[in-house]
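Priority: medium. Attachment 1 of 2:
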């Protein structure tokens, strides 16, 4: 199946340097259950997206399951054991390779002691361990770098006085990180595992267990280093009938246990068949799900027969537990649940409104009355879950310090000086008023100009949690107002979900895409969002799921929109609009270099010294690949480059660990599955080059840029270097920001008295009127300039105006149309790199146009050297930042004669 193949590739990539074999077995202590980290197959749609937590069988989607399973990326401690089938006794000498003969079987060694707060580790298993002690982590990193990646892993004893039958692991973990030296030593079990470090990512250290060891003495206090002796299993007779019979019983009980855990069955059945007796006992202990102490006993037992007996007991107990009637668990789980809900309320009980407390208490008593598998129970459980998870009365302290805010805004966003100034004003006013509530900022501008990013920075500056709700995709009012609690699948709306997620009652909520609300004809949805924003209404916001008011008055709302004109009017008068026009090339260079590249590099885990993307490459990327007002596309291209760099570096530094295989090559083929023989050879070469320290820095320059991002894309905004006869360049504004547009006049028929103008059918009425007027003006201009020229009188013309760039706001292409018509009639080329914008009126005046900044940026982006603006726009242009105006020859005109002189000056070539 294609998905299987893809997943295999992903798991190969994900496991990176330390490729693990395809078939692994994960051990999840948190749920007391084990999960197979196997291939993902996509099933029914709901299953893929995740079930809502509404009924007993509800489970999260495949992605969440994947995060839970692959705990390297999960947020919680990973008590994960990965078992490599076929299972055989690991021979430490073979595992290490011959170059570093540190381990002596039956000998003595000095190792760093790594405490394991959860389950002990058994030989032959892989396991990622989170190391929270920075000194220990640094020491482990150092030994890994020194090619001496060995460590002693020891289970942590529970605190004295803890009931061993209740050993949880988390209790053991609680204080262990504060202990040092002797104190720590006393809290570790003496018998542990000699393990090899396969890789370190962040604070996660992936280990493979080699063999059993016993602590002999402490060598160093911090990080704890101990002298250890290597333990060997006592000799045993493989043909002894008692051992054979016991192992047979272990195998059969193990099979019974696995029958109740179908997800482990496929992998483990193979392992059971291939395991020798000592390993079978270890495997059984792991699968039994026994508590720390019991597993530790198995680890400490060197007599193989006794070890098998111990494991057998654990497995039998595991079978018995799986048969305990549901009833007992039911009572247990209800009490635990109530306790969990009550515990959540501890600390801020006083802050919870009385009416809410009352509801919670009523629901808690209801919980005890319903059967654990009843619908009512699940409904009540869900309701309580929401009620108790909301941050009643929890607020983050708002910070109105404008200096701090400036620092944060600069840290997160390049340039945008005017936007930042407005935000600082907003914060300063908030300081005087004591609150920023009530005023709603709305950032408008084309995609990728940093609207969301600015919103996030404001939240950071004000010390509020950030949450964004994209209203563009909403179709149902219930997504804002919540579903009525009529069945188990009902859920609250986005705002309540937001409060639960952020955990404070005063987050900054970014309503993304308010202009998209107007487009949908869901008026009730628009008014629901409006209620949310209205300071009069939102203090008593009623979510249908709860049916009692929730105070949202402390939430700070910020909005974004691509097109201001599409924002519903009701919203507009409540908002303070701040527009972001886009960036010119040098701004994009700074953003790319200092922000996008940096964040992408960090996200890919690549060090600055491993890579160099030259200025020329970045410039080429901006000018030839990403013709846009913002930097969204640029960001995608930079990500593309870094993903490829990561792969190149990965190939350079790849190290397929032989793990439990006999020969490195064999392990490679088995681990990587699909890798070809060539890869194996490459791998060896790479290993050799790594050994002599020749990992090369990846340089991305103009010469090899295409290898990373393909060939440059066609720029529809700059079709001509020199516009031909009949073509003139104008400037327009669309939802994607400013843009250049070409207007082209063509003759379609010629003949005495045939003078007429045809226009594209879909052109709007305003543009049509504008074109007709342009035709008249061009005719009269031609008569003035070349009285004998009868071109317009005798030619039927077609005026092409690209619809893609049809101005959305107001007609501003009249002067461009006149110029293109005149160019055709006079057969004269229009001045090179000239953009004309302005609308002509019958009164002979040129009317001002809008979006001066956006249009100027678009002109710069497309290599325009000269711009003609109406005189009335001079003030708008003068207000622009110097870097936006730089290098442009700008003319402000009052009548068309001035445009004529600039466009067809004496030095203009004729196109005859
Ligand atoms: P928008 O909300 O306008 O579509 P985003 O805020 O999502 O744009 O920005 C897209 C990307 O570009 C983000 O990674 C953002 O950090 C980055 N970005 C945009 N403008 C800037 C800027 N001025 N400085 C630094 N990064 C920026």
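Attachment 2 of 2:
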């Amino acid at each position: 199946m294609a998905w299987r193949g893809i997943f295999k590739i992903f798991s190969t990539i994900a496991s990176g340097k330390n490729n693990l074999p395809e078939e692994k077995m994960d051990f999840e202590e948190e749920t007391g259950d084990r999960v197979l980290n196997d291939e993902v197959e996509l099933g029914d749609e709901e299953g893929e997206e995740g079930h809502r937590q509404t009924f007993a069988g509800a489970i999260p989607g495949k992605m969440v399951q994947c995060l839970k399973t692959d705990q390297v990326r999960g947020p919680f401690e990973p008590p994960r054991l990965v078992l490599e089938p076929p299972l055989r006794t690991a021979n430490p000498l073979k595992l290490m390779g011959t170059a570093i003969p540190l381990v002596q079987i039956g000998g003595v060694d000095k190792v760093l002691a790594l405490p394991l707060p959860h389950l002990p580790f058994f030989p032959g298993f892989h396991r990622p361990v989170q190391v929270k002690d920075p000194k220990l982590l640094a020491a482990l990193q150092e030994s890994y770098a020194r090619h001496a990646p060995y460590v002693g892993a020891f289970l942590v004893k529970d605190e004295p006085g803890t009931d061993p039958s209740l050993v949880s692991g988390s209790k053991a973990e609680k204080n262990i990180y504060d202990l040092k030296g002797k104190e720590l030593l006393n809290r570790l079990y003496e018998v542990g595992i000699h393990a090899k470090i396969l890789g370190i990512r962040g604070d996660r250290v992936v280990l493979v267990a080699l063999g059993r060891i016993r602590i002999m003495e402490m060598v160093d206090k911090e990080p704890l280093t101990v002298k250890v002796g290597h333990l060997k299993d006592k000799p045993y007779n493989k043909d002894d009938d008692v051992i054979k019979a016991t192992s047979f019983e272990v195998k059969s009980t193990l099979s019974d246990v696995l029958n109740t855990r179908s997800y482990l069955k496929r992998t483990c059945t193979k392992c059971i068949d291939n395991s020798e007796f000592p390993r079978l006992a270890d495997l059984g202990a792991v699968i039994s799900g026994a508590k720390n102490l019991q597993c530790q006993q198995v680890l400490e037992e060197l007599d193989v027969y006794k070890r098998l007996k111990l494991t057998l007991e654990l497995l039998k107990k595991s079978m018995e537990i799986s048969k305990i009637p549901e009833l007992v668990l039911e009572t247990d789980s209800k009490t635990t649940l109530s306790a969990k809900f009550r515990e959540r309320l501890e600390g801020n009980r006083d802050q919870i409104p009385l009416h809410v407390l009352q509801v919670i208490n009523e629901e808690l008593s209801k919980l005890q009355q319903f059967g654990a598998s009843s619908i009512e129970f699940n409904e009540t459980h869900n309701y309580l879950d929401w009620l108790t998870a909301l941050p009643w009365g929890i607020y983050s302290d708002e910070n109105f310090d404008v200096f701090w805010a400036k620092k944060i805004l600069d840290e997160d966003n390049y340039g945008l000086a005017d936007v930042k100034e407005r935000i600082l004003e907003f914060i300063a006013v908030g300081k005087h008023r004591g609150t920023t509530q009530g005023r709603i900022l709305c950032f408008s501008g084309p995609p990728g100009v940093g609207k969301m990013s600015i919103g996030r920075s404001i939240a950071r500056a004000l010390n509020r949690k950030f949450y964004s709700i994209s209203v563009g995709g909403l179709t149902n009012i219930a997504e804002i107002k919540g579903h009525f609690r009529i069945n188990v699948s009902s859920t609250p709306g986005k705002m309540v979900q937001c409060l639960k997620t952020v955990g404070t009652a005063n987050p900054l909520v970014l309503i993304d895409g308010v202009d998209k609300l107007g487009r949908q004809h869901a008026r009730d949805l628009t008014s629901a969002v409006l209620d949310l924003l209205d300071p009069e209404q939102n203090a008593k916001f009623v979510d249908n799921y709860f049916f009692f008011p929730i105070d949202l008055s402390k939430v700070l709302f910020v909005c974004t929109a691509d097109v201001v004109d599409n924002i519903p009017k009701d919203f507009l008068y409540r908002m303070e609009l701040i527009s972001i026009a886009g960036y010119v090339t040098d701004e994009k260079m700074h953003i790319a270099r200092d922000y996008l590249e940096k964040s992408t590099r960090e996200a890919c885990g690549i060090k600055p010294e491993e890579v160099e993307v030259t200025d020329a490459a970045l410039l080429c990327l901006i000018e030839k690949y990403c013709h846009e007002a913002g930097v969204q596309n640029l960001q995608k291209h930079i990500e593309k480059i870094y993903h490829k760099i990561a792969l190149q570096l990965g190939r350079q530094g790849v190290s397929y660990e032989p793990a439990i295989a006999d020969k490195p090559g064999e392990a490679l083929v088995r681990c990587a599955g699909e890798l070809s023989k060539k890869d194996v050879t490459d791998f060896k070469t790479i290993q050799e080059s790594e050994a002599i320290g020749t990992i090369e820095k990846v340089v991305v320059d103009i010469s090899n840029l295409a290898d990373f991002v393909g060939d440059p894309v066609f720029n529809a905004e700059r079709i001509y270097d020199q516009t031909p006869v009949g073509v003139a360049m104008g400037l327009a504004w669309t939802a994607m920001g400013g843009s250049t547009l070409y207007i082209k006049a063509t003759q379609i028929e010629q003949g005495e008295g045939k003078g007429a103008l045809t226009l594209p059918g879909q052109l709007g009425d305003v543009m049509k009127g504008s074109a007709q007027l342009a035709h008249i003006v061009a005719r009269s201009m031609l008569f003035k300039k070349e009285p004998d020229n009868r071109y317009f009188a005798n030619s039927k013309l077609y005026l092409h105006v690209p619809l893609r760039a049809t101005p959305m706001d107001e007609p501003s292409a009249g002067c461009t149309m006149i110029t293109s018509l005149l160019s055709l009639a006079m057969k004269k080329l229009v001045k090179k790199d000239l953009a004309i914008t302005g609308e002509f009126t019958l009164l002979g005046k040129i009317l001002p146009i809008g979006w001066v900044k956006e249009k100027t940026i678009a002109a710069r982006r497309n290599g325009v050297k000269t711009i003609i603006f109406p005189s009335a726009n001079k003030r708008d242009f003068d207000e622009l930042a110097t870097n936006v105006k730089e290098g442009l020859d700008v003319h402000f005109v009052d009548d068309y004669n001035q445009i004529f002189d600039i466009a067809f000056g004496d030095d203009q070539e004729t196109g005859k």
